[in-house]
C-alpha cells in the first residue's frame, strides 16, 4: 500500500462522510489487513521468510484470530517454537474451539492443564445454569487430553479418550478419523479400516487421513479398494498432499520411480506432511537407498516422531550396517515410549541382526510379549530367533498360541516355514495355503509354496536351474527368503 494513501486516510474519510457506508469502507484501508494479505500470498508461493517479515510488522495488539494462526504456522515452519506457542495461545484466548491451535500446542509440548487454562472461565450469555455450561465444556477438555496423549506417544491413552468422545458424538467424522489414525499407527489395522470406511460413508468427500487409509489397504493387498479410493480422491481434490501419498502407495507395486515421484510431490505441496516423508523413506529402503531413507525418516521425526519413523530409521541404519546408530535410535524410542511393546521389540530387532547378541534380542522380545501378550510381531520375531538357533519345537509352541484368535497371513507363513524346516511338509503346505486364502498377494507365501512343491517332488529347492536366466531368478528368490 503506497504511503501517501495512509497519509490521506483522514481527509478521504472526511470527504466521504456524506457518501454511502460502502464507499467509506472502500476508501479507508487497514494497513495491517494489507500486510496479512501480502503474507498469505507469500505463503502460497512458499516464501516463508518474506511472509514472516510482513506478519511481524503487525503489532501484537492489532492481530486478530486469523493473523495469529498464520503467524503461529510460520513460526513452526521456521522452528521458532516459543513464539509459535505464544501465537497459538492467543488464538485460544480469542476462541477455545480452534482445533488447529489445540493440536499445535500439544505437539509443541504444552500440557493439557496449560491448554485448558487458556479457555474462558465464565459461561456464555445463554441463560443456562453454570453447571450446564461447565458440563458442556468437559468434552473440549477431554479432546485436549486426547491430543496431549498422542503427542507424548501415549497412543493407548489417546485412543481411550477419543473412543469416549465418539460415544458422546456418534458418527462425528472428525473424531472417527482421529480414532482410525491412532489405530493405524498402533497396528489395529482391521479396526482402523472399519472406522476409515465409516467416515467415508458419512462424508464421501473427506480427504483428511485418506493416505493413512491407502497405506492400510496396501498392507492388506486390497488393490480393488485402493484403486477406487485413489480414483475418488483425484475427483475430489487432486492437489492435496494426501492424494499424492495415496498415488504413491498405489504405484509402489508397479513402478518404484513413479511412486517416489508422487511421495516427493506430497512434500512439495506441504512440507509438514508427515506421511509423505514416511512413504518416501520406505520407498527408498525398498530401492536399496538406505542413506537417503535415513534423511526422509529424520524429516518425519523433526515434524512429529512416531512409531513408523523410528522403525524406518532403525531399519535404514541396519541396512547400512550401522548397528550403533540403529541401537541409539531404538533406545531413543524406548525413552519416548517406556511402556511400549513395539519400542521394546525394536531394540530386540537391532540385537537380532547380529549373531553374537541374539540372547539379548530374545530377552527384549520376551519383555515385549510381557508388556503386550497379544503382540504378534514380537511373537513372530521370537519364533524366527528360535528357528535360526534350531529350537523348532519352541517356535511351534509359541506360534500355536496365536492361531485361535488370529487371522493374520504372516502367522501362517511363519508356521509353514518352521514346519518345512522340520520336514513336516504336509503341515507346511496347509499353512501356506491358509496364508494365501487370507491374502492371495502374499509374496512370502507364494515363494515358500514354490520351494515346498520342489521339496515334495524330491528336488533340491536351492539347486540351480539349467537355464542361466533361471539361475538369476532363483538367486533372487533365495536372497529374499
Automatic annotation (TrEMBL):
Q: Which domain of life is it from?
A: Eukaryota
Species assigned in the record: Kalanchoe fedtschenkoi (Lavender scallops)
One matching Pfam family is TPR_8
Q: Which GO terms describe its cellular component?
A: anaphase-promoting complex
UniProt repeat feature TPR, residue ranges: 409-442
Q: What GO biological process term is on the record, naming one?
A: protein ubiquitination
Q: Which InterPro entries match?
A: TPR-like_helical_dom_sf, TPR_rpt
Q: Which UniProt keywords apply?
A: TPR repeat
**What's the protein here called?**
Anaphase-promoting complex subunit 7
Compositionally biased tracts (Basic and acidic residues)? 444-460
Compositional bias ranges of the Acidic residues kind: 462-481
Q: Where is this region: Disordered?
A: 1-26, 443-481
> Which SUPFAM superfamilies does this chain map to?
TPR-like
Taxonomy of origin reads: Eukaryota, Viridiplantae, Streptophyta, Embryophyta, Tracheophyta
> Is Transmembrane included in the keywords of this UniProt record?
no
Amino acid at each position: 500500500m503506497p504511503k501517501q494513501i495512509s497519509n490521506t486516510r483522514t481527509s478521504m474519510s472526511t470527504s466521504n462522510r456524506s457518501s454511502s457506508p460502502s464507499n467509506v469502507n472502500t476508501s479507508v484501508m487497514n494497513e495491517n489487513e494489507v500486510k496479512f494479505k501480502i503474507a498469505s500470498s507469500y505463503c502460497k508461493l512458499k516464501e516463508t521468510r518474506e511472509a514472516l517479515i510482513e506478519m511481524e510488522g503487525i503489532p501484537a495488539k492489532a492481530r486478530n484470530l486469523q493473523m495469529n494462526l498464520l503467524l503461529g504456522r510460520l513460526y513452526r515452519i521456521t522452528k521458532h517454537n516459543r513464539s509459535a506457542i505464544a501465537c497459538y495461545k492467543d488464538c485460544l484466548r480469542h476462541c477455545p474451539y480452534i482445533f488447529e491451535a489445540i493440536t499445535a500446542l500439544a505437539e509443541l509440548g504444552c500440557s493439557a492443564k496449560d491448554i485448558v487454562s487458556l479457555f474462558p472461565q465464565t459461561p456464555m450469555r445463554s441463560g443456562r445454569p453454570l453447571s450446564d455450561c461447565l458440563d458442556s465444556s468437559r468434552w473440549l477438555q477431554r479432546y485436549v487430553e486426547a491430543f496431549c496423549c498422542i503427542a507424548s506417544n501415549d497412543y493407548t491413552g489417546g485412543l481411550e479418550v477419543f473412543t469416549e468422545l465418539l460415544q458422546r458424538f456418534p458418527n462425528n467424522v472428525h473424531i472417527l478419523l482421529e480414532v482410525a489414525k491412532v489405530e493405524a499407527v498402533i497396528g489395529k489395522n482391521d479396526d482402523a479400516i472399519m472406522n476409515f470406511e465409516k467416515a467415508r460413508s458419512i462424508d464421501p468427500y473427506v480427504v483428511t487421513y485418506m493416505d493413512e487409509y491407502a497405506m492400510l489397504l496396501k498392507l492388506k493387498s486390497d488393490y480393488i479398494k485402493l484403486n477406487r479410493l485413489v480414483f475418488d480422491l483425484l475427483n475430489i481434490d487432486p492437489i492435496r498432499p494426501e492424494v499424492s501419498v495415496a498415488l504413491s502407495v498405489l504405484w509402489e507395486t508397479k513402478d518404484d520411480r513413479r511412486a517416489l515421484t508422487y511421495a516427493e510431490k506430497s512434500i512439495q505441496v506441504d512440507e509438514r506432511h508427515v506421511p509423505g516423508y514416511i512413504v518416501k523413506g520406505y520407498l527408498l529402503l525398498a530401492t536399496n537407498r538406505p542413506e537417503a531413507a535415513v534423511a526422509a525418516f529424520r524429516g518425519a521425526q523433526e515434524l512429529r516422531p512416531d512409531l513408523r519413523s523410528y522403525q524406518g530409521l532403525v531399519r535404514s541404519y541396519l541396512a547400512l550396517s550401522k548397528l550403533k546408530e540403529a541401537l541409539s535410535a531404538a533406545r531413543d524410542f524406548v525413552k519416548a515410549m517406556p511402556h511400549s511393546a513395539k519400542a521394546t521389540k525394536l531394540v530386540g530387532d537391532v540385537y537380532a541382526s547380529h549373531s553374537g547378541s541374539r540372547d539379548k534380542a530374545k530377552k527384549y522380545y520376551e519383555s515385549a510379549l510381557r508388556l503386550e501378550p497379544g503382540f504378534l510381531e514380537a511373537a513372530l520375531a521370537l519364533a524366527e530367533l528360535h528357528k535360526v538357533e534350531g529350537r523348532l519345537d519352541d517356535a511351534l509352541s509359541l506360534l500355536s498360541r496365536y492361531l485361535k484368535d488370529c487371522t493374520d497371513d504372516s502367522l501362517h507363513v511363519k508356521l509353514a516355514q518352521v514346519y518345512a524346516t522340520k520336514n513336516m511338509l504336509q503341515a507346511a503346505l496347509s499353512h501356506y495355503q491358509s496364508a494365501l486364502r487370507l491374502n492371495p498377494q502374499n509374496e512370502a507365501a507364494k515363494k515358500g509354496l514354490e520351494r515346498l512343491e520342489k521339496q515334495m517332488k524330491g528336488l533340491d529347492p536351492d539347486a540351480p536351474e539349467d537355464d542361466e536366466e533361471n539361475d538369476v531368478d532363483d538367486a533372487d528368490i533365495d536372497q529374499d527368503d
